[in-house]
Structures are given as C-alpha cells and as structure tokens.
Amino acid sequence: MSYENIIVDQPAPGVGRVRLNRPRALNALNSALMDEVMAAMAGFDADSEIGAMILTGDDKAFAAGADIKEMDGKSQIDMLMSRSLVDRFDIESISKPIIAAVSGYALGGGCEVAMSCDMIVASETAVFGQPEINLGIIPGAGGTQRLTRAVGKALAMEIMLTDRKLSAQEALDCGLVNRVAPLDEYMDLAIDISQKAARRSQVAIRLTKEAINKAYETSLSEGLALERRNFLIAFGSEDKAEGMRAFIEKRRAEWKNR
Ligand code: CAA
After folding, report:
1. Residues 83, 100, 7: CA angle, nearest 5 degrees
2. What is the CATH number of domain 202-249?
C-alpha cells in the first residue's frame, strides 16, 4: 500500500515502524495522516511476522499537534456529525505493543498520540506539552485523562492551564516517558526495546498488555479478576507448554504464537 503522509518500514526483524511525514507542518496530525497511521498499524497488527511497532516522527517534531488549519474551518456540528479528526486517534485499538519514539515537539495531539502508545522513548531534544489552552480549546484526544494519570494532578494542571512544556529529562523524572537517549541514539534504543517485546510469545504479550491497560480503568478486584482470567488463558496456550519446557531443558523457547 502506498501512503502520502507516512513512511512505513521494518527496521529490524519483527518490528514495524510508522514515521509521520509532514515535515513542513511539523507533522501536524490531519485526517488523511491519521487514517494512514491507523491503516498501517492495523496492517502490522494483523501481520504474524510483526511482534511490536514503533511510531515516530522526525528529529525536529514527533508531531506539533492536531492540524489547526484543518480544524479552523470546522464547526461544533461538523465535528459532531462527521468522523472528526479526534475520532481517528484510535491507537488503543491496536493489540501489539507500540513504542513512541519521540524527538522534538510532541505537543497537543502529538503528545496525546505518544501517550496512547505503550511506551515512550525520547531523544534529549524532545519537548512535551498540551498548548490547546492558547487556542481557546482543551485537549481532545485524551490529554486531560492520560497526562493526569501519568504525571499527577498538580503538574497536569500546570501543563494544561499554563502551557508549561516538559523537557525530555523532566518527562523522564515525572514518569511520562520510559527512557531518554541522545538524538543519534534514541531510535536505536526504541528498536532495541521493540525487539525485546517482539521476540516474546505474542499470545502472552497480548494478554499482558490488556491486563496492564485494565489497571487504569477498573477497581483492584476487577483488575485482579481480569489478570486471573488472562493468566488461565495463557495456561491454555502452546507457548506456555513450550516456554516452561524450554526453561527446564535450558534452551531458547521457539514461540508459535498459539
Ligand atoms: N497545525 C497545523 N500546522 C502547524 C501546526 C499545527 N498544530 N504546528 C505547526 N504547524 C505549521 C506552521 O503553521 C508552519 O507552517 P507555515 O510555514 O505554512 O506557516 C510550520 O508548521 C512550521 O511551524 P512554525 O513556523 O510555527 O515553527 P516554529 O519552529 O516557529 O514553532 C511550534 C514550532 C512552537 C511547535 C509552533 O509551530 C506551534 O506552536 N505549533 C502549534 C502547537 C499547538 O498548538 N498544538 C496543539 C494543536 S490543537 C490539538 O492538538 C487538539 C487536540 O488535542 C487533538
């Protein structure tokens, strides 16, 4: 499939990569780009050769937000009655692990897309923020919820009410990102982490991701019940038999993803 707003490749075995490619607009997220991102990710999700994905931009910008020029002409009813831009931000529908590799600006919808991924690897130049307040709007793709859960109420208030930006180091210190690396190393680090997930049983990875995500949305007892259910599902897999046998026989497991 050919794309106009993204570049898709496989930088390492088992790893699919989607690169946002609107550099002149600092990778601002418009409808066409988001449709392409979701189509490419759904393709990787359905590809048994792919075990994990990277979503990235370029050195200057991961993404500087939802496309303000596209939103400028839209009315409230336009947004309500059509499949609007923010409705296309559907990263959580992807079941395989996704690592956001962030360099430069990750603002507004860009920060929200990064937070929708499962892990964030940042370059030392990354800048995170939710500047929607400057436009007379509020975050519309999860910012008030995901950022608050990630960094806590006090800092989330400062970021979203006053346009406080976070450096990569600050984002690391407050738990928003997993790792920070120099600009010329962050992509290799993202690929390395992706490969570590991609090499595991896709059955166990999928069940684990689902259970961790549930921790944000439910009570402890309901979360523990889902974990127990997924633990039992894993026990029915061929990969469970192979993983335990490989340990006992002191060899590397050969996953069937069944
Ligand atoms: N939408 C559309 N175009 C954008 C854009 C955006 N979010 N961000 C940058 N651009 C465009 C600029 O219009 C400019 O294009 P032209 O050359 O055609 O004018 C080009 O990208 C380069 O931008 P700048 O000249 O502004 O670059 P800079 O280095 O001086 O500044 C910046 C960089 C601080 C990131 C600045 O571009 C900026 O503030 N961008 C907007 C950030 C923002 O408000 N994001 C939130 C959007 S709303 C949202 O995301 C809602 C939601 O929750 C879903």
Report:
1. 70
2. 1.10.12
Instruction: Write b or e for each residue in 67-99: b if 16 or more Cβ atoms lie within 10 A of its Cβ, otherwise e.
Output: bbebbeeeeeeeeeeeebbbebbebeebebbbb
* CA gap 96, 61 in Å, rounded: 24
Question: Residue ranges per domain, the chain?
Answer: 6-198, 202-249
pLDDT at residue 138 is higher than 90: yes
86: pLDDT confidence band, cut at 50, 70 and 90? confident
Output the CA 81–ligand 1 centroid distance in Å. 26
Measured from CB, residues less than 6 Å from any atom of ligand 1 are 25-26, 28, 64-69, 86, 105, 107-109, 112, 131-132, 134-135, 139-141, 143
Whole-number Å distance between alpha carbons of 55 and 89: 13
For residue 235, what are its two tokens? 């026990």
The confidence band for 83, taking pLDDT boundaries of 50, 70 and 90, is confident
Amino acid at 217: E
pLDDT per position as a tens digit, 8-39: 999 999 999 999 999 999 999 999 999 999 99
Contact 118, 146 (CB under 8 A): no
Assigned CATH topology for domain 6-198: 2-enoyl-CoA Hydratase; Chain A, domain 1 (3.90.226)
